[in-house]
Every structure is written in C-alpha cells, then in structure tokens.
Specification:
6-stranded mixed sheet, binds adenosine-5'-diphosphate
Length: 901
C-alpha cells in the first residue's frame, strides 16, 4: 500500500500547510472540508466534529461543506486563523488529482461574508508603524474595513494608540515582526489591553519602497499626490503593508485577480477607497477606559449591547432604533468617536431639528430607509467576487429608493447638501438599478448554480434551454402513458431521483407479472427497493442526457449573464459607497429624531466657550428603564461659574449616575444627537475623560489602586481647558490618609488647569476646598431626607436630587441597614462611630492651601503606635521561661509609665 502521506492530494495539503503554517487548513474533498493531523485533533473537539483515522493512522475530521460558515465563525471567535483550500477545477475534468488552491484566509479583521459578520457590528483591521525605535515612539496607523472598503490613516502617540484603536473597533492589528517572532513589547501592550488578535508580518512589507509599491498598484496610480499624501508618510507604509495582507488573505494575485470556484467575478479589492488622512481635530476623543466606564458600546455587567448607549439606537425602528445595517454601524462610530468640529455637530443638529419639527417627513424617510439592504457590504462582496444573486437583486431593489429619498429631502433647507448629493448618485445608479430589476427575478435562489436568477426574455439561449426543461414534464407524462400501454401495466410510474436519475418504477407484483415483456421493451434494472423495481430504457436515457445538457447549458448562460451584470455593478463601486454613506447618515439622524421625539430630548446649544449648563438633564439609559421615576438634575460648570464641582452624598444617593449622565449628555451632543435635558448649553469639548469605579477585568494582575492611579495620571497629563473630566471616588484603593491627600492634590491641580470636572467623593474634608479655592471649586451634594423610623432608628430616603453645598454626613451605617445588615451590627457600629469621633476629635483639621504652606506635611492627625507594641510583636513567648516572661512584662510596663511621665 502506498504511503497515505504521499498521495497527490496529501502533497497538495502539505504544500498549502507550508504556505500557511499559522492557519488551520480546511481542505476540500468532495462534499467535505477535511482537517488532518494536529488541526484535526485540536479543532475537532472544539467544533463538535467526529475525530476519525485515515489509513495509516492519520487523524482526520470532516466538516460538511455547507456548514463552512458556522465552523469559521466559531474558529475565528476562538482566535484561530483559517485557510480554505478549495477545488478550483471541476472534478470531472481532472486528469489525476483535482486542482486545488487556497482561496481565502479568514482572520478576525478580514471577515466579509454575510454569514460571518453581524450586520450591526463594525469590524476593522489596522496596521501600525512606529516611527522611531524607542518604547514610547509615536505611531502611524492605517485602518480598513474590508467589508465596506473604507481606508483611513491617522497618527497617535504611544499613550493614545490603544484608545484610538479601541474607538475604531479594531479586531486585528498587523505589525512588523521582529526577528524573534513575538510582538515587540509596545505592540504586545496594546494587544493585551484591547484583547485583540495581533498578526506579525514580514518587516519588508512595511518598508518605504515596498509598501509604496503596494499602494500604487492597488489604486493604479503612479503618485500619491492626488490623494494628498506624501511618499515618506509613515502611515502610507502601514497602508501598504495592510493592502498586501488583504490581497493575500483574499487570495488576489499580482494581476489583481483571484481564481476561486463559485467566484462570480474576479476579486479585485476594487472597493477599497483611496487612503484618507483623518482630520485630527475632527473628533472629541473618548478614550477606551471612558467608553467602557460610560457603557457606550456595551454594559460592564454582562457585556451586552442592550443597556448600553449604542443599544438605545439599535432597538425598534420608530422608537429610536436605526433601520439599516449601515445606520447601525455608523451610530456606533458616531457615539464612540463623537465629532469635534462645531460645523459638523451643528449640521447634524440642524437635520435632527428638521426631522423633529416635521414628524411626517421623519416617518416617510424612515419608511423609505427600512427596506434598504446593506449596500456597503454588498459592494464589498462584489469587489471580492463573493456577491450572490440575492445580493445583486438586493442592491437593485435598494437603489430603487434613491428617487424617493431625493424627493423627501427636497425643499428642506437642512438637507440641501444631502439632497444634491443624492441627486448626483441617483443619475449614476438609476440605469443599473433598472437593469437589475429588468433582468433578475424578484426572489432569486441563494446560489447561482441553483438556477432561475434571470427572467424570461433576457437571453434567447437561456429561454431555449429552459423550455427543454419545462417541456420535460410533458414529455415524461406522455412517456409514462406510452410505456404503461406497451407493457400493459396501467399503474406504472416514471420518476426521477438525484442519485439514479430517471427511471420506470414497477411494484414487485407488476415486475413479476411483466416477465419477458421487460426484456422486449429493453428495460434494464437500475435499483431494487423493498416493494418495487426501477428500470431505465434507452429512450429514457436519451431524454435524460438531453435534459442534463440543457440544464448545464442554462447554468452556463446564467453564469455568463451574472458575470456581466456584476461587472457592470462593480464599475459603480464609488457611487454605491456614496449611496451607502448617505443612507447611513439619514438613518442615524432619523433615529436621533425619533428618540428625541419619544423622550422629549432637546437641541443643545453648542458654543465655542468653556461652559456646560444643563437644565433638568437625565441619564439616557436609566430614563428608559425608570421612565418618570427618574429624577432630572441640572448643573452649571465653567464659563463664569467654577469649572470643578465636588459632589458628596451617601452611597446609593445617585452620585455616579449624575456624573455619568453629564458625560453622556455631552457625548450625545457631540455625536450630533439631541440630549435628554430640558435645555443644554455645551461648550465644544475636545476630550471626555472618565475614571469611575474599579475595573479589574481590564487590567489583570495590577492592583485596583495602581489601575486607578494609571488612569488618573493619564487624565492629569492630557486634560486641557476644553476637556470634560469625570472622577468617581478617587483614592479609595489606599489608606484613608493617602487617598484623601491624593484626592486633595488632584482637585487642586485640575482646578488650576481648568477642564470642566465633576468629582464625586466620600471625603468630606475635600469640601473645604470650596472656600480655599474660591471661584474655582464648588460643592454639590445629593439630597436625602432623614426621619425617625421604627424604634427611633433614623431612616433615610434617597431623593436623587443634586443641590448646592456639601452633604452633612456620610450615612454609611444607614445604607448598611437598608442593605439588610443585622440591626445588632449597625447598632454596634453606631457606638463605635461615636467613640471614634470622641477619640479622634470630631473633625480633622483641613490642610492649608499649598501657597500658604508649601510642604503640607502634617496633614491630618495620624495614629502612631507605642514602641511597646513593636516590642510585643517581637517577643517569642514559646521560647521563654516563665521568669523571662515576667521580666519582659515588667520592662514593658515600665516603658509605658516612662512615656507618660
Ligand atoms: P452613588 O454613586 O451615590 O452610590 P448611584 O449613582 O450608583 O449612587 O445610584 C444608586 C441607584 O439610585 C441607581 O442604581 C439608580 O437606580 C438610583 N438613582 C440614581 N440617580 C437617580 C435619579 N436621578 N433618579 C432616580 N433614581 C436614581
């Protein structure tokens, strides 16, 4: 027997495996994708596949080909890269082993197929270039969304790189692989923090000359000047490396063509838009920590989108939810990367206002948007040769709504720019929409090879081939009657099945009674069933051949027509992407308007000043859950008022909710939405910083306090006078005195620097800063009402109302009681509190301001243990005789008397 590892197919296998050593290889054999060797043993259990053995003891697991998407989704989620080796030749035509090729490499950042990618999820890939060798080198980054073709460039410093990547929903990061193979530490840090896949690529892909070549080839240009880019721009090096990777994973050769079975048109990556540098001032930056703490994309508790701010706009259409997949992705981008320029923001507000004041218009735009499919991703699949008949028909149908959107946006001044853009798109795309509609059936099959995509009358040859097929049923009926008569067996049937083809079926009784007549009429047995026999006749065989020729002819013609149609569509990728952008914007703005109407959100007044003034503001997510039970709260910060507010109040009073709500209102306004408040004036904000609660999951292995200080350091290093800073309980992770001192110094620094700041704290001592830093700091507290409850135990009710001034006490014991701590314990706690207050003096002395006393050393009274206590700790009682112990006791006793005297 020949070596099973050396069959021609296995030779192919090893070649592919060598070319893609870091991938799990799915190797197509007939109706299955086979996994061999280690791939089989590691992956089979994870996919629930049966592990078997091929001759010669080769481990093997097979996955049915039609389940491929399912397995890919699971494997990519588990962090694997998968190479797919397909048969690129019809097995019938193969002499010897059928030709195979790796037709796609699937990685987290390069998913494009419909079945693998959630429509509302944004999924991007980035390549990074560090511009010097230092550990804190600045970085230049290229980012692509493969499914839609967007390609942008930006720069970041070493501190903000991870934040920039997080806000863009990057799922895979390419980096130049150093000799060792492991990512360099600065890259590893980013990967760890964001928990995304890192893919090392040969360093030469990032070199100036080679990367430039990749970019120029992709866009068929000889210079980058037309894109406003310079040759030496490090971001171009990142773009070149990224493009090379995309071509490789999509198996596109140097001519820009991918040969792939079932590929309708050549994959070209033609949908990739020319690289564009992002406007650095165009965004209000919300770092990764803040995105998480404010629950913008998902909740902290269970990581679900529902319950997050983005979730508000993914709900039911008409209630504030977006209607199209493109809108759902854009709203995520707008909320994670709010706008930073006044013109952009007010233009969005103008349009939301127009839709709020004209509900009929909003509803009609909503109706026109609802049926529009994911044109952006379909355009991507067209460019990658992966579009299906349903994609093409979907695009045709979606384009037919442009006219309606043009009509609706006409005559509303706020939409003038969008209207003229849509008009332009319409004139380009209308002919192609009409062509799709004229040529394709309304409800095509999922796969081209199932046939029936094109209408009758589109192609004469197709009509002819089809009529042979339709005539078939009549021919069969006639033939059945004829053979029944010839055999004199009235009940016999002529039928068809996929495996055996056409047959004449006789029951066992009929077959027995027919005797010689079967041979006379040339019936040859084909298949024996339990109670029946099936036969073929020469006449039937002829017919079968003719039908199958007609069938493959029809298939061939449909493929040809489909290729032409998709090639035509591919010529308009630019217009398609402009259309999808326009739809996405309209969709998000309509969702903003719907929510504003539903919840009474108002238009914020945006200014270039430094104020933040809110009247009756609400928390956008909690208001949804609590409805009218939510207590609105206002605030003024900055401008002519103090820019920093300290908020005190008992646990559970609503401090965190309030400070988050202020951040969210600011963020929503910058995203272009109306805000949950009766009125709002908001000075343009360049960054929103949030440090709330301990977030251990994000920084495994570091102490809570360390994490808190790292994040606080980031704020202190970056917050400027146009920023908004939200701090909750800073200094909790260390001793009271350390914590209080740090909090004190942080407040002083921020009040000097001038960002609008909200600081929720337990440290009542801090409230003295209001008088010390007059005009810069003010006190707010959350009101509670206290009254004598059962058995004269004081009870409190939370009013959730923010009021000026400090809170009088901290109510921790009341809250413990509310939480169900037994009364005996809270009574005892009250006693202890009383005696501590007596020992320490009811109030600690507040420090002087640093100007009066630069070295503020003796901040607060501190407990210094008596030396006798240290001595007691050192004594080893077990090693002492009773006499030695007595002597030691006397010494200790004397020493305490000495100290007193
Ligand atoms: P704190 O930070 O002071 O401990 P939280 O902000 O966590 O308090 O609020 C505690 C609970 O009180 C929240 O879970 C919320 O249900 C409720 N709450 C907070 N603010 C309000 C409000 N303005 N209106 C109604 N309920 C509120």
């Amino acid at each position: 027997m020949s070596d099973p590892k050396q069959t021609p197919a296995m030779k192919q296998y090893f070649r592919f495996k060598k070319e893609h050593p870091d991938c799990v290889l799915f190797f197509r054999m007939g109706d299955f994708y086979e996994l061999f060797f280690e791939d089989a043993t590691t992956v089979a259990p994870q996919l629930g596949l049966t592990l078997t053995e091929r001759t010669g003891g080769v481990p093997l697991a097979g996955a049915p080909h039609h389940q491929l998407d399912n397995y890919l989704r699971k494997l990519v989620a588990l962090g694997y890269r998968v190479a797919i080796a397909d048969q690129i030749q019809d097995p019938k035509e193969a002499k010897g082993v059928v030709e195979r090729a790796v037709t796609q490499v699937v990685t987290p950042g390069t998913l494009v197929d419909d079945g693998l990618l959630d429509g509302s999820a944004v999924n991007r890939i980035a390549a990074v270039v560090f511009t010097d060798s230092g550990d804190d080198s600045p970085a230049s980054v290229a980012v692509a969304e493969v499914s839609t073709g967007e390609l942008t460039l930006f720069d970041a410093d070493s501190k903000t790189l991870a934040d920039e990547l997080a806000s863009r929903a990057i799922s895979e990061l390419l980096f130049a692989e150093p000799g060792s193979g492991d990512p360099p530490p600065r890259t590893q840090r980013v990967l760890d923090r964001l928990e995304i896949a890192g893919t090392g690529r040969p360093a030469w892909h990032f070199r100036e000359e080679e990367s430039l070549e990749a970019v120029l080839t992709q866009f068929k240009v000889t210079t980058l000047a037309g894109f406003g880019l310079e040759t030496g721009d490090p971001a171009v090096r990142a773009a070149g490396a990224l493009i090379r990777y995309l071509r490789e994973t999509q198996a596109i050769d140097n001519e820009g063509v991918a040969s792939r079975p079932g590929a309708i048109a050549a994959a070209t990556l033609a949908h990739l838009q020319p690289p564009k540098r992002e406007d650095p001032a165009g965004r209000c930056i919300v770092d990764a920590v803040s995105l998480r703490a404010l629950e913008i994309e998902k909740t902290i508790r269970d990581g679900a989108v529902k319950g997050s701010v983005v979730g508000l706009f993914l709900g039911q259409a008409g209630q504030g939810g977006c209607r199209t997949a493109m809108g759902k992705r854009l709203v995520r981008d707008w909320l994670c990367r709010p706008a930073g320029r006044l013109e952009t923001i007010t233009s969005r507000h103008d349009r939301v206002a127009a839709l709020v004041s004209d509900r009929r218009l909003a509803d009609e735009i909503g109706h026109a948007l609802s049926p529009i499919q994911d044109v952006a991703r379909i355009a991507g699949r067209l460019a990658l040769g992966r579009a299906t008949p349903r994609d093409v028909v979907g695009i045709g149908r979606s384009l037919s709504f442009i006219e309606r959107l043009c009509e609706l946006t006409d005559n509303t001044p706020a939409f003038a720019a969008q209207h003229s853009e849509l008009r332009g798109i319409e004139s380009v795309l209308r002919p192609i929409a009409e062509r799709v509609e004229a040529e394709c059936v309304e409800d095509p099959p999922a796969l081209l090879r199932d046939g029936g995509v094109f209408r009758e009358g589109v192609d004469k040859r197709l009509d002819e081939a089809r009529s042979l097929q339709t005539d078939a049923s009549k021919w069969l009926a006639d033939y059945q009657a004829k053979i029944a008569q010839e055999l004199d067996l009235p009940g016999i049937k002529v039928g068809y099945n996929k495996v055996f083809g056409y047959y004449v079926e006789l029951t066992a009784v009929q077959a027995a009674s027919a005797g010689d007549r079967l041979a006379q009429h040339a019936l040859t047995r084909k298949q024996t069933l339990k109670n029946a026999e099936r036969y073929i006749t020469p006449e039937l065989k002829d017919f079968e051949d003719k039908v199958s020729r007609a069938e493959s002819m029809a298939q061939e013609i449909e493929r040809e027509l489909f290729t032409k149609l998709t090639a035509e569509l591919t010529k308009h990728l630019g217009a398609l992407s402009a259309f999808s952008n326009a739809v996405a914007e309209l969709d998000v703005l309509t969702a903003f308007a719907d929510r504003a109407t539903r919840r009474g959100w108002t238009r914020p007044e945006m200014t270039s000043g430094g104020e933040l003034s809110l009247v009756e503001a609400r928390h956008p997510v909690l208001e949804e859950a609590l409805e009218h039970d939510f207590v609105p709260n206002g605030l003024t910060l900055g401008g002519s008022d103090a820019a920093l507010a300290l908020i005190t109040g008992p646990n559970m009073a609503g401090k965190s909710t309030f400070i988050r709500q202020v951040a969210l209102v600011t963020l929503l306004a910058h995203a272009g939405s109306f805000v949950p408040a009766k009125a709002a004036t908001i000075g343009l904000t360049d960054r929103i910083f949030t440090r709330v609660g301990a977030d251990d999951a994000l920084h495994r292995g570091q102490s809570t306090f360390m994490v808190e200080m790292i994040e606080t350091a980031n704020i202190l290093n970056h917050a400027g006078e146009k920023s908004l800073v939200i701090l909750d309980e800073i200094g909790r992770g260390t001793s009271t005195l350390d914590g209080l001192s740090l909090a004190w110094a942080i407040v002083e620094t921020l009040s000097e620097r001038g960002p609008r700041t909200l600081f929720a704290t337990h440290y009542h001592e801090l409230t003295d800063l209001e008088s010390q830093l007059e005009g810069k700091v003010r006190n707010l507290h959350v009101a509670v009402r206290e009254w004598a409850g059962e058995g004269d135990q004081p009870e409190i009710v939370f009013l959730h109302q923010i009021e000026p001034g400090r809170s009088e006490q901290s109510f921790g014991i009341h809250v413990a009681r509310l939480a169900g701590v037994p009364q005996a314990v809270t009574d005892r706690a009250r006693d202890v509190l009383g005696s501590l207050a007596v020992h320490h003096g009811a109030k600690v002395e507040a420090p002087k301001s640093p100007k009066e006393q630069p070295a503020q050393m003796s901040l607060f009274t501190e407990f210094v243990p008596h030396p006798a206590v240290d001595r007691l700790r050192e004594i080893k009682l077990d090693e002492m005789s009773p006499m030695q112990a007595f002597d030691e006791l006397r010494r200790l006793s004397d020493s305490t008397r000495d100290a007193k005297g």
